[in-house]
């Protein structure tokens, strides 16, 4: 929410969305507002069991093209690991190699 109205910041989030997942926001249609409209990009996963190939595709098809267009001077990464294979909450299948690739 802090950058929702900011045109100078591109915020991209790949995350689980659904009942039981904090904070319960981040739907694909949440795009930012005012000058920041279109600068918030959410890739919400609503199904369990996604793995390296799915996350790699999200990076190749969504994240990297946006970064190339935006040309950021600085990239900050905030990574949770509930997508890790074996995490009982996330129920995803991303391996350590998959995280390294991202």
Describe the structure.
With 102 residues, this protein is α+β, with helices and mostly antiparallel strands. The protein has a two-stranded parallel ribbon with strand order 1-2. The model has no long low-confidence stretch (mean pLDDT 96). The chain has 2 helices and 2 strands; from the N terminus they run ββαα. The protein has one domain. The chain starts with 10 loop residues before the first strand and ends with a helix.
Short précis:
Helix content is 25%, strand content 12%. The protein is an alpha+beta fold and 102 residues long.
Topology as H/E string? EEHH
- Total number of strands: 2
Q: Helices and strands: which structural class?
A: alpha+beta
- What strand line-up does the widest sheet have? 1-2
Radius of gyration: 14 Å
Mean pLDDT across residues: 96
Count of helical segments? 2
Specify the biggest β-sheet: 2 strands, parallel
Please, how many domains? 1
Q: Given the C-alpha coordinates, what overall shape results?
A: globular
Low-confidence stretches: none
Tell me what portion of residues adopts beta-strand conformation: 5-15%
The helix content, as a percent range, equals 10-25%
The end-to-end distance, rounded to whole angstroms, is 24 Å
